[in-house]
Amino acid sequence: MNSFEFQHPWFFLLFIIIAIMIWQQYFKPSKMVEIAVPGVRELKYKYSLKSLLFKYLPLLRILALSAFIFALARPQSVLKEEEVKAEGIDIMLVMDLSSSMLARDFDPDRLTVSKQMAQDFIDKRSYDRIGLVVFAGESFTQSPLTTDHRVLKNFLGQLESGLLDDGTAIGMGLASAVNRLKESEAKSKVVILLTDGVNNAGYIKPMTAAEIAKSMGVKVYTIGVGSMGNAISPTRRRSDGVYVFANTRVEIDEALLTEISKLTGGQYFRATDEASLQSIYEQIDQFEKTEIEVSVFKRYSEEFRFFLFIGLICLILEWLFKNTILRSVP
How far apart are CA 98 and CA 166, in angstroms? Predict the structure, then answer.
């Protein structure tokens, strides 16, 4: 990253002299005495190009002196190089895409807010490999572990309910994520599983997947999304693909999610609104800190020659104008 700094900035105090020069040249009250001469009042004096150049000729000297002050301040271009040694964490995000994630107890719905919070979480994990698994009635790996967080966030943004058969296969989603971590050599391996329902699909039981996670040293954080009580949620889907909404009761198997987290050394969280979900991701971010060692190297490039050159050009131009087209005849 290039930046600009001055080795001797106190030379900028000389700009006080520049300010005085400008005041004396253009703002100091004139002491010239005006004499009224009869018969010439109707004459209109018109400024010519030469007269304008003569008036502003002193600016060239002022610009030259300003450039010399910048040169004296010793400007330097700084190239910063960072050598980063990061002991990253491998993280798999597991997100529920069942139709109930369209419930409107979040604004505009649970899925949209969950995606946004996950993207914000990814932005904070610059040095970690992160992957994405989605599930409904079945599971699917949307993205393997990657450090290309821009692509990962694009995948997240494209998620929507209806991509998979409806249902809530928590065990399948967790098993797919754990399978993606089995080859990981990271010191810390984490799964963040977000759901709003009760396991009712899939051929792998959630606790079986949790046992596998434990045996592989994978820590599972579970998040139950949804307000307490009732919420406006999809109850069926018409033949044209449009969901029909009605007020239904929220059901989340908190006991199961708590047991999964406890078994693997993680923690269960309940998010009842956008603020609480954001707070949960912030807590997980604090729990799972990446160890980073950063060494910064600086290289300097002297840039005073540019300002010296500009100053000399201004002085040469002033001399040329003063001794050619703006030459004064005694």
Answer: 5
Domain 89-289 has CATH 3.40.50.410: yes
Task: Provide the 10 A C-beta neighbour count for residue 2.
Answer: 8
* pLDDT at position 295: 64
Stretches where the chain sits below pLDDT 50 are 1, 43
Specify the pLDDT at position 1: 42
Asked if 79 contacts 299 with a C-beta cutoff of 8 angstroms, the reply is yes
Q: Give the model's pLDDT for residue 267.
A: 97
pTM here is 0.66
User: What 3 state SS string does the chain have?
Assistant: CEEEEECCHHHHHHHHHHHHHHHHHHHCCCCCCCCCCCCCCCCCCCCCHHHHHHHHCHHHHHHHHHHHHHHHCCEEEEEEEEEEEEECEEEEEEEECCHHHHCCCCCCCHHHHHHHHHHHHHHCCCCCEEEEEEECCCEEEEEEEECCHHHHHHHHHCCCCCCCCCCCCHHHHHHHHHHHHCCCCCCEEEEEEEECCCCCCCCCCHHHHHHHHHHCCEEEEEEEECCCCEEEEEEEECCCCCEEEEEEECCCCHHHHHHHHHHHCCCEEEECCHHHHHHHHHHHHHHCCCEEEEEEEEEEEECHHHHHHHHHHHHHHHHHHHCCCCCCCC
Q: Which sequence spans correspond to the domains of the chain? A: 1-24+48-84+294-330, 89-289
CA nearest to 281, candidates 265, 263, 269, 264? 269
pLDDT the model gives residue 33: 54
Q: What is the pLDDT of residue 39?
A: 55
